[in-house]
Design goal:
Two copies of one chain form a homodimer.
Chain A (H helix, E strand, L loop, with lengths): L11 H7 L21 E7 L8 E7 L7 E11 L1 H8 L15 E9 L11 E5 L8 E5 L3 E3 L6 H6 L1 H14 L7 E4 L5 H10 L6 E6 L4 H4 L5 E4 L4 H8 L4 E6 L5 H7 L1 E10 L24 H7 L2 E5 L1 H7 L3 H16 L7 E5 L4 H9 L6 E5 L10 H9 L34 E2 L2
Parallel strand pairs in A: 8-9, 8-11, 9-10, 11-12, 12-13, 14-15
Antiparallel strand pairs in A: 1-2, 3-4, 3-6, 3-15, 4-5, 5-7, 14-16
Helix pairs in contact in A: 4-5, 4-11
Chain lengths: ~425, ~425
């Protein structure tokens, strides 16, 4: 991995709040004007595990690629629910802080480490990074970097790797999705949920059952076959439609849902637990979650009922279990589907690095439909006061909430704003 | 299901022992001469759960097909380890005794129930039966009956359904076996083990690790890639050859092997528990087995390690879960592979109905390589006294132990004889 330099902490949050309204208005290289030295770069730094106030935008020494690495000038970074868990320290064997969060990004190759083949300076790429993605420049082993199609935007490319590889591998590598099958996916409006829905549509006659907050239903109703409120008794809802249950249950919720999900499986069906479960029972933060209540499963019950239970962690597969080669094959297939216009990442909204807290609050509040993206070149949207916000809220939303790609319209739902700070808020920038 | 008539118990075992040597020598319709009435048939009856002495050959009223059933004149029946568990009562929700055991047979269609389509009298068939297979005549729903190829013998056909459908569904429906993968199978010399080995050879570059009693190794060594003694530390043996482990573990042993099997899985690998686990903890017979010690599995561990655990019970799938249509599709594919000479059932030995105890003892002792078949038309081999047996044992075995199909020779191993009774034994008839 790239060698990280000494941090020069910059209390960006306070600076932004103090200097609200004084931000330069120019687009493009937002924030880079602060760097007096080309050997430095901006990055989001997590100073310690905890709340949003542990996040800062900081100057760090420019990383240089080691043997086998690519140096990437980052254009956009993906924000996942997992990043929220990392911030809270709710992960197994947490790394030491301070750290730069983020596991995926897109950008342009700026330098090649020794022994790197197959890439050239200037290539447009997307990449997995084992932390350190939320920065202006990252270095990552060439095994985790993929060229992107000409017509794929950097925002789309930053929304692609985690969600689509996870969805594809669960459906086709673990569960063997085939014609005529049915799939239940929770958080159908999220990044993985929308990737699952799109991939299911590439197989004939697949029924998708989804759960999502009711306010998202209008926006995503065309992407799934049956949609339930996330707080509804979805077991009964599914059984009412399909008494036998479903062939595949994808569960990122866990807790009591493991039993519910298993109970919904048809014979030969597969339950997959994925996503954000990097928790350890000894972790004090756990008490705020129910995930440690996951029930153990008796293999004899699986035998009697002809059921399959699986776990899926893409990051472990990549960074602990050495499956980069397998995953490159999956990315190749996914890019093929993108080129055939069969899949397309759904981007919820773009945020400047300095807006990471608001972005994280939005994913915490499950306000997003599709992926939240940190746009490295974006200038932070000026903060608005409570008075301005009241004015903002009273207007019609329709003129500011643009149409979503691939999932219909946002319709009349309220654009949920970040609520990280006190008194000042930014309005979210929805995708182009 | 067919209506069963009143039993007329016949203490066959005692009769055979008393009348040893007086058995009529004619081949063909062995035993049927005893029936004075064409409205009766011979069947193996389990009088109650317990030891071998609970098995009898009995006259029973001729069953007649109900609506949707076929009446089959049985030629051969498959004997599975599961039948041994049934005899002991080691099954979940055991049926009432007396009962006729047996779950599969082959024969000729003799009559059609109402509304049966697709079959004609005289068709050569194999069938699943929910008990009652070990008889001269069975009736079973048409959903569980399959026509057999012209060149498939009745012995082969009786050895086919349980083992090959189980092996195929585990490898291709549950685990998604593909090129370059590796499989660990226990009891590699048994019926399922040999079916697994053959099916793996239909996929390019699949490595098969097998465990089996050492005396079987010479006979089956060509059917698997790596063979270990069943009492060896196969985890270490496998890891010595493949440090990463294997992609698929098929486990009919259970107990502490669940943990061992899971530990051997590569990331994205699948562990399948199958076969004979129809036990309940409240069953007193359980104390003689270790299977209730199956460890529960923590889904979070599956998540962290990217592993899959599955259970597979063909009989539940057929008779409780209504998957006859799916299984007919699998049988069609398997018959296609048989016609292409890519698979061929391995028959260990043929036994008359009256020899069921010896046959069952042989499977209990794990003496078989491939399938044990009850050949309904076979005349029981005369019993030999201890003196004759000593003489028999002292001779070279090679002249009597014929070559096995598809698995090389029996070589110099001792033909294991049944040991059900006291003082008298039959020598086994190995396959033609």
């Amino acid at each position: 991995m790239a060698k990280e330099g000494v941090e020069k902490a910059e209390e960006t949050e306070q600076m932004i709040e103090k200097e609200a309204g004084k931000e330069p208005a120019e687009g493009g290289g937002g924030g880079s004007h602060r760097l007096g030295d080309a050997q430095e770069m901006r990055a989001v730094v997590l100073a310690g595990f905890g709340g949003l106030n542990k996040l800062r935008v900081t100057r760090k020494a420019m990383p240089e690629p080691q043997d086998g690495e690519l140096k990437i000038r980052v254009k956009a970074c993906g924000l996942n629910f997992l990043d929220l868990m990392v911030r809270q320290g709710n992960i197994d064997n947490p790394p030491k802080t301070p750290l730069v969060p983020g596991f995926e990004c897109s950008g342009i190759v700026e330098a090649l480490g020794d022994s790197v083949k197959g890439f050239e300076i200037g290539d447009r790429v997307m990449a997995f990074v084992n932390y350190n993605a939320w920065a202006e420049v990252v270095c990552t082993p060439v095994d985790f970097v993929y060229k992107i199609p000409e017509d794929m935007s950097f925002s789309e490319a930053a929304a692609f790797p985690m969600n689509f590889v996870t969805a594809y591998m669960m459906l086709f590598e673990v569960a063997n999705l085939r014609e005529g099958m049915s799939v239940l996916v929770h958080s159908a409006g999220g990044g993985v949920g929308q990737a699952v829905a799109q991939l299911c549509s590439t197989v004939p006659n697949v029924t998708v059952f989804g759960t999502a907050s009711t306010f998202k239903h209008e926006a995503i109703k065309d992407s799934v076959t049956h949609l339930f409120d996330r707080n509804a008794d979805y077991v009964q809802e599914v059984k009412r439609i399909s008494a036998e249950g479903v062939d595949i249950v994808l569960d990122c919720l866990c807790g009591d849902n493991t039993g519910k999900g298993l109970s919904l499986l048809k014979p030969l069906g597969t339950y997959i637990l994925y996503g954000n479960l990097v928790l350890t029972p000894c972790n004090p933060h756990l008490l705020s979650f129910q995930w440690w209540q996951v029930e153990k499963v008796n293999p004899i019950k699986l035998y009697e009922e002809n059921k399959v239970i699986a776990g899926f962690s893409l990051l472990n597969l990549l960074f602990k279990q050495g499956r980069a080669g397998l995953i490159r094959g999956v990315v190749d297939k996914l890019i093929g589907l993108y080129n055939q216009k069969k899949v397309k990442p759904v981007v919820d909204s773009l945020w400047a690095l300095e807006e990471v807290k608001e972005a994280m609050q939005r994913i915490h509040d499950r306000g997003n439909i599709g992926k939240l993206i940190l746009d490295v070149e974006k200038t932070p949207t000026p903060l608005v006061s409570q008075k301005q916000r009241d004015l903002f809220s009273s207007r019609s939303e329709s003129s500011r909430c643009r149409h979503k790609r691939g999932v219909g319209r946002w319709g009349g739902r309220k654009c949920r704003q970040g609520s990280a700070g006190q008194g000042w808020r930014r309005k979210p920038e929805v995708t182009k």
